[in-house]
Amino acid sequence: MLDGKALYRDILNATEEFDATFCIGQGGHGSVYKVNLPSLGNIAVKRLYSSFENTHPKSFMNEVRALIGIKHRNIVNLYGYCSNAQNSLLVYEYVERGSLSSILSNEAESKKLDWLKRVNIIKGVAFALSYLHQDCSPSIVHRDISSRNVLLDSEYEARVSDFGIAKLLNPDSSNCTTLAGTYGYVAPELAYTMKVTQMCDVYSFGVLALEIIKGKHLGEYITVLANSSTRDYVQLSDLLDERLPYPEDRVKEVLVFIIKLASSCLLETPKSRPTMHFVSHRLSSMNPRPPTHVRQAK
Fold it and tell me: Which of 28, 51, 75, 274 has the highest local Cβ count within 10 Å?
């Protein structure tokens, strides 16, 4: 177990009391710093904004509660936390390549994300969400799935991060809440029901999966794909990232399959959407890699 007081002192010293030069990103609830410690190597430290007097303790405990017992290859690892009157810190594994959002918006980096890597990232996020919904007790709804909150490691493996507004579903409660999340990814029903369900994450996943294939958020195309009567008029070429070469047939089949699956996640009626367990099961059963032909020995 980490010694919180010693860890806190080490982090303060290593970042020169949170000097801006160590900051690698900023989110809705805090700033993230890259810290190198002799005991742990590179770690990521999220320092929650103290200006959020009302929300920051809740966001802090939310993240701790959601992540403390979780061990999953596609979910960022929480090592520990420290909190005092000055600072509330969350200590995570350091994920080398940073956010999917920053990679997709970078011309050179996005070209390194070939079709197979993108398929694997989509699978990774689906596996993480299926685990949160199905295998955690109580079930956890992330509520802020977006390309900004998916990190990629050195092997381009996905890690879902930022559980600041995650909700642990209480079976004895209505699970109503205020509207939160990232604009463009929020399920439409949250605008009028305020009831959090796993289907909110399913909708966000659908938006994200299509964004990964297109290389950017689909904007108005989301409503076209959500509607089965207009979906058939969309050309595959309209949904592919033009920065990558056109996919070979086998990979193309997989991308078409994912687009159809992601589109079903966008249906307006939440009950009509598939569960993440169903989605992850369907994704794990497909193989975009061409078969390797073994030559028969004579």
Answer: 75
Residue 210 to residue 167: CA distance in whole angstroms: 25
183: how many CB neighbours lie within 10 A of its CB? 7
Residues near 9 by beta carbon (within 8 Å), at least 6 away in sequence? none
Query: Is-contact 157 127, C-beta < 8 A?
Result: no
Alpha helices in the chain (DSSP H): 4-14, 55-67, 100-104, 107-112, 115-130, 198-214, 221-226, 228-231, 236-239, 249-264, 276-284
Per residue in 172-222, pLDDT tens? 544 455 556 677 898 998 877 777 899 999 999 999 999 999 999 999 889
In whole angstroms, what is the distance from residue 105 CA to residue 111 CA?
10
Catalytic residue, chosen from 10, 144, 201, 238, is 144
Is there a catalytic annotation at residue 144?
yes
Residue 60 corresponds to which tokens in the numbers above? 């802090």
The CA-based angle 126-129-130, given to 5 degrees, is: 80
Question: Position 46: which residue type?
Answer: K
CA–CA distance, 200 with 56 (Å, rounded to integer): 23
Choose among 177, 175, 146: nearest CA to 162: 146
Q: Measured on CA atoms in the order 249, 254, 260, 263, is the torsion positive or negative? A: negative
- The two structure tokens encoding residue 32: 């993230």
Residue that is written with structure tokens 């742990």 in the block: 40
